[in-house]
Specification:
heterotrimer; A alpha/beta (663); B alpha/beta (146); C mainly alpha (128); B: 146 residues; alpha/beta; Rossmann fold; four-stranded parallel beta sheet; 5 helices; 4 strands; 42% helix; C: 128 residues; mainly alpha; Fumarate Reductase Iron-sulfur Protein, Chain B, domain 2; 2 domains; 8 helices; globular
């Protein structure tokens, strides 16, 4: 039999004004199992807590019911009090007689009666409480960063700085991501390569950081602090350790028809190539689709000319298994495909390019060596028209419903750079809104208009068509309320951005939630913006939502801080109120596994003794207490009733229902 | 009818999700927005923790109405719990309807932690409906009667 | 006169920088003569910014603008639409080479109650 103590709080006059606290204490004292019932003005005060502690010691209480304010307010306080007096903190129940009773009812008799019922309900539940201990699990002190763009690089550098080991897994042959392709960065116009490549080199040289390029996540198992990840290191047909990046193979390779991915396909590259001069790792890779040796066994020129014998045409994919305590998702973005936007003639006219392609054209290391020429005839364009919001803020289904956030600023940047480098050009920009929230952003945009004479036209473009040598851009000028046609030499489309297509598969493996636009969802939009609702998964960069470089870097560092906070712990304390399955009842049907949003339930084959020396092997559910968050979805789904939730067990809630309904 | 109500006030059991509706009830309390005293709240970690058994039990023990409050769809603290609730309850309620427990006696509402006023409005409205329906006799276990 | 020179003159005369305009429309939002204008104050700024003045020269708005300077007062970017309209009006009057109000006509339209100041303003506004 339990020995229960009831403590009724006055909360000054907050409770005592409408609830007869003395009567409540008196009536509840008569409940079976209650050995002591007290009332006090402020139960949460030091004196009130001392009263509880003393009563526990004096009467040898096994459980405590506090009739006071909401458990959301002081449950933790009273649990601590009881723990300090030697009772398990989960042997405490709170009857909410303030928010749910004294504050909303005026009639003293009615409120007192309700308070008694609430107290009885708490006692009924407490009688079925069991002492709970939160489990602990060890933390593997190593982090995985998925994606090697600026977000992944920054997160990795910060985590390594704190002394933890980090692996960067990047799907393309080099780290650097989209930022490596950019020419200049707004709003200061420093060159992207000048600020990014030193960070890439830092990553390569940091002995805490292991870079795995041309690799993909194969599978993820485990939970916060204890992830087991399989990484597929795809065959690059060049030995990463021996290749010196001398580039002789690139010159010798006869198959030069591959589209240069780094230059957005604007020029060609050989079948064996180094993505770009500052690539990390600076190692060649063979494109098996292009390589003559791999395709039909004839060639081998690169191998013959390689001084260090780094080339291996028979290389196979390799699976590496690693353990991690935390995983950072930094998978980034890509511009959307423009197939749904025929009106801009992207697929028809060579001189209609996307902004990222334009970025390469303007880049000194790009396909034109930084010379502004039209892709169609190599001539210098004089009139360049930019079109913003191509596919952004589009709810028709052709594009994306969200604002891509970065386009206004990079278009202003492009327009400004154009006018600065080539004063002979005429630059027009069609826009719906110019959105420039950010430090020095609006000033930057105004500079494009006021100092560089960029013509901003409020309105969208209806179509782009060719007349002779010119691309005719027909759109509306809403300010002057007229249709305008601008004969242009080149058209640049600010295409919307979307999350990297690989993210959906990765999110599924991580059981991280993802929204309808394939952006990863944060644990709380305002207060936990860099964490996924799944413990141990962190979000860095555009995978969580569109953002520019400064914002990405801040988020990446914030993300690293959270990872460091996790890795700094030796063990993790788990939620005590977790689900558990009664193996004797479980039928192994897997329904609970399917409803669990956290992947906390797994099935194992277990041997059971049947008596008489016989055993049988049955498939039963097992809950991982480190992963379970205690929602209880599985308990209701379980057809056999084997699943139950500690702290909110079926019996406890039934007892509460019973007590509430007692008249 | 009035007379009966005075003698035996209808009893309403409200299951509230700890993260939204229970906090909404707290907000209703701290904003002093009243609702009838015969509404009794039972705290659950998530609306999806509410087993249909609990609701049957409540009716068996003489409750006149049962209301389930959870987070708004899409806002579940546990990501998807309230979707399960929504489906389970629509099934259960139609079954209860078949058994003669009027559809109006059971309800699912989404109340966020910020919606104290909504919580009290919902409870007042539900209590009014139950008052009009009067005593529930269908599932009541007569052995539970005092 | 060359068109570009004409624009330059108007910009000079108005003494305001149309490029500073961020197209918020506050000028037109406040204008008391808005309903009677064919080209609205914000469009004046926009046309000047783009260097198109043909439409402006024929606009009815030139003579409906009250020159009350409400637009100037309200502009968050320090642009003076009224000054631009005034400059275009000057241009039109100079181009026509004639005065829109003749001194001889005054006695016919004058009313004892009209303040002297108004007459002076009228001559300033409608004459070369």
């Amino acid at each position: 039999m339990q020995k229960i103590g009831v403590f009724v709080c006055w909360c000054g006059s907050n409770i005592s004004a409408t609830v007869d606290v003395k009567k409540v204490a008196e009536v509840l004292k008569a409940e079976p199992g209650v050995v002591v019932s007290e009332n006090y003005q402020y139960m949460c005060s030091e004196n009130g807590q001392a009263l509880i502690r003393n009563a526990i010691k004096e009467h040898g209480l096994t459980g405590v019911v506090v009739c006071s304010c909401s458990p959301r307010m002081h449950e933790a306080t009273f649990r601590k009090t009881c723990e300090s007096a030697g009772i398990n903190p989960y042997m405490v129940e709170i009857a909410n007689i303030r928010e749910q009773c004294s504050w909303i009812h005026k009639d003293i008799e009615e409120a007192t009666e309700k308070a008694i019922i609430l107290g009885r309900t708490a006692i009924a539940k407490l009688k079925l409480n069991a002492p709970l201990t939160a489990g602990e699990s060890a933390v593997t002190k190593r982090a995985l960063v998925i994606g090697g763009g600026i977000a992944g690089i920054q997160s990795a550098l910060d985590i390594a700085e704190a002394g933890f080991e980090v692996d960067i897994v990047e799907q393309s042959p080099t780290i650097g991501g989209n930022m490596a392709k950019l020419d200049k960065t707004f709003p200061t116009l420093d060159c992207a390569a000048c600020i990014l490549t030193p960070k890439m080199v830092d990553c390569a040289q940091n002995d805490k950081i292991d870079i795995m390029t041309f690799s993909e996540i194969e599978s993820v198992k485990g939970f916060v602090g204890n992830f087991k990840v399989e990484i597929r290191r795809k065959a690059r047909f060049v030995n990463e350790k021996t290749c010196t990046g001398c580039g002789v193979c690139m010159q010798k390779c006869p198959a030069k028809k591959g589209l240069n991915e780094f230059n957005m396909g604007l020029n060609n590259r050989p079948a064996i190539y180094i993505p770009f001069a500052q690539a990390i790792p600076n190692v060649a890779i063979i494109d098996p689709e292009q390589c003559l040796k791999i395709k039909n066994g004839k060639c081998g020129l690169c191998s013959m000319n390689c001084q260090v014998n780094a080339i291996d045409y028979t290389m196979k994919d390799e699976i590496v298994e690693r353990e991690y305590g935390a995983i950072v998702v930094a998978t980034g973005y890509k511009p959307i495909s423009l197939e749904n936007f025929n009106e801009y003639g992207y697929d028809t006219y060579k001189d209609v390019v996307t902004s990222l392609e334009f970025e390469r054209i303007m880049n000194a290391a790009g396909p034109t060596n930084g010379q502004l020429v039209r892709p169609s005839d190599g001539k210098h364009p004089h009139v360049i028209t930019f079109i913003q919001c191509v596919g952004s803020r589009d709810t028709s289904g052709c594009g994306k419903p969200y604002c891509s956030k970065i386009c206004c600023m990079y278009t202003a940047k492009h327009a400004m750079l154009l006018r600065e480098k080539y004063p002979d050009t005429e630059v027009h920009v069609f826009y719906i809104d110019v959105r420039t929230p950010g430090k020095n952003y609006d000033e930057f945009f105004r500079r494009a208009v006021e100092q560089y004479d960029v013509d901003y036209i409020k309105g969208m473009v209806g179509k782009v068509y060719k007349e002779g040598d010119k691309l005719m851009v027909q759109g509306s000028d809403l300010i002057n309320d007229e249709q305008v046609i601008i004969p242009s030499d080149m058209v640049v489309l600010a295409a919307a951005i979307e999350p990297n297509p690989s993210v959906r598969k990765i999110a599924t493996m991580l059981t991280a939630s993802i929204d309808t636009n394939n952006f990863l969802t944060e644990a709380h939009a305002k207060l936990r913006p860099v964490e996924s609702p799944t413990a141990g998964i962190f979000l860095s960069g555009v995978c969580q939502g569109p953002k520019d470089i400064p914002e990405t870097v801040s988020q990446a560092s914030a993300c690293a801080a959270k990872v460091i906070g996790l890795l700094a712990k030796d063990t993790l304390k788990c939620n005590a109120c977790v689900a558990h399955s009664d193996e004797m009842i479980c039928t192994g049907c897997s329904v609970c596994e399917n409803v669990c949003p956290y992947g906390a339930i797994t099935y194992v084959d277990k041997e059971f003794r049947l008596g008489g020396g016989k055993t049988e092997v049955r498939r039963v559910a097992q809950v991982n207490p480190a992963v379970c968050q205690g929602c209880g979805a599985c308990t209701v789904t379980c057809p056999s009733g084997a699943m139950d939730l500690k702290g909110f067990s079926t019996k406890q809630i039934m007892a509460e229902v019973d007590a509430v309904c007692k008249r | 009818m009035q007379e009966i109500n005075k003698e035996r006030k209808p009893l309403i059991v409200a299951f509230c999700c700890n993260w939204c509706s229970y906090a909404g009830a707290d907000l209703a309390g701290s904003s002093r927005l009243s609702y009838p005293a015969n509404v009794k709240i039972i705290r659950v970690p998530c609306s999806c923790r509410v087993n249909p058994l609990f609701i049957l039990k409540a009716f068996q023990r003489g409750a006149d109405g049962v209301i389930l409050c959870g987070c708004h769809p899409g806002d579940c603290h546990y990501t998807t719990g309230n979707y399960y609730t929504r489906r389970r309850m629509s099934l259960l309620f139609s079954m209860l309807d078949y058994l003669g427990i009027e559809r109006e006696r059971t309800r699912v509402e989404w109340v966020s932690a910020a919606e104290g006023a909504k919580f009290s409005n919902v409870m007042n409205d539900f209590a009014k409906t139950i008052n009009e329906l009067g005593e529930n006799k269908r599932l009541e276990d007569l052995r539970c009667k005092d | 006169m060359e068109k570009s020179e004409q624009i330059k003159l108007i910009k000079e005369r108005s003494g305001t920088d149309a490029k500073k305009c961020m197209k918020c429309g506050k000028c037109s939002g406040r204008c008391p003569a808005y309903a009677d204008m064919d080209i609205k104050p914000h469009q004046f700024v926009s046309y000047i910014e783009k260097g198109e003045i043909d439409k402006l020269l024929n606009s009815k708005s030139l003579f409906t603008c009250l020159t009350c300077f409400a637009c100037v007062e309200r502009c968050p970017r320090g642009v003076a639409p009224a000054a631009i309209i005034e400059a275009v009006r000057q241009e039109v009057i100079r181009m026509q080479g004639e005065n829109r109000v003749k001194a001889e006509e005054i006695p016919e339209i004058v009313d004892d109650k009209i303040p002297q100041q108004l007459l002076v303003s009228m001559f300033r506004k409608y004459n070369k």
